[in-house]
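Data card: per-record layout.
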Amino acid sequence: MNQDRRDRLRDAAVAVLAEAGGRGLTHRAVDAAAAVPTGTAKNYFPTRDALLRAVAERCAEQYRAVAASLAGAGPGPSDAAQLAALLAGLLRNVAGPGRPRVLAYLELQTEGTRRPWLAALLDPIAAADFAAHAHLLRAAGLPAGPEQARALTLALHGAIPPLLSGGPATLAAAGLDDLDRFARGLLAAVCPEETP
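The structure for this 196-residue chain is written out next.
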């Protein structure tokens, strides 16, 4: 099968899931979003489960690409200020260009509550964040034990829904109206003795 067309269909499926939710993810909707003849998505992804799997795989690929581009080619941030900048960049991506991917991923998590195979596919993606954040903390010279990695990861994950919904009062109350300040404050809370 044509890999370029397959990727185009997967990108279209991410967009459809983000915009229309789980009920709106159909082969016909993906065909329309990808501007391909009717039946093309079904040829590549014969079942709805195959379509959901394709979206999950594409979301994971896109997330890894964003994380890699923000982290650069080096070993990671070398201090708390660089780590705070990286975390603020990740959150900006969630609220900006990464919004469709993140919305689709949240829809997949909801679908995963009814489809154990999908939950199992998503589990390593979310679990990898804990190890990745521990690595970033270590690279920045900050404490990187399980408690710190957990607190950082769960706080970042918890910031996602308000960022996506964008309610100004909620963003202000959560401190998400200034992502640089939020990231610095989060690191200060996670590693209080280490962060200026």
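Known properties of this structure: The CA atoms of residues 49 and 117 lie 9 Å apart. The radius of gyration is 18 Å.

See the next section for split statistics.
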